[in-house]
Amino acid sequence: MINIILPVDFGDKTEQLVDGAIKFAKEVNGRINLIHVAPTDIGFAIGDMGFQYFPEVEENEIREELVQLNKLEQRIVSHYIECEHLLKQGIAKDIILDYASSKNANYIVMGSHGRSGIYDVFVGSLTKSLTKSSTVPVLVIPIHE
Asked: Which Pfam families match (predicted)?
């Protein structure tokens, strides 16, 4: 069976990306391994007293993200596609590549918003970074308005 890694960020285009991954998984008889990489600084805030850490904020955010991952997994499974999910904190590119290696992935499926040029200079692009670093083929699904 073809192993597909599907990183999600719960942005406004996540549903379109999942639709594309479902279609691809059906075409290649694949299973989807959902992954969400949360930033390590979720519970930090800066105020009058400098940086402060609020573990309850981080716990609530992680809990909500797990709920969202479960919903996406259920949606994928409802299309008769095997699926599992993982949530980790850290540097997205490194964690996704490690996960792909651990799952013997055949593909990483990413979305592209079609931005380029100055946007990439200032913000960067996880998709662009993965396509440069991955030994696994990266399938880029165009996500447009």
From this structure: Usp
Helix (H) or strand (E) holding 36: strand 30-38
Nearest to 38 by CA among 73, 62, 17, 54: 62
C-beta pairs of 42-51 under 8 Å, 24+ apart in sequence: 42/89
- Helix (H/G/I), strand (E/B), else coil: 49: coil
pTM: 0.83
> Domain residues for 104?
2-141
CATH, residue 15: 3.40.50.620
Torsion sign (Cα): 22, 91, 97, 83: negative
Per the DSSP assignment, residues forming a β-bridge with 94 are: none
The candidate with the shortest Cα–Cα distance to 14, out of 87, 92, 71, 96, is 71
16-59 pLDDT per residue, tens: 999 999 999 999 999 999 999 987 765 545 556 665 555 565 67
**DSSP classification of residue 139:** E
- Looking at the 3D structure of the chain, how many domains does it have? 1
Q: Which residues are bridge partners to 5 per DSSP?
A: 33, 108
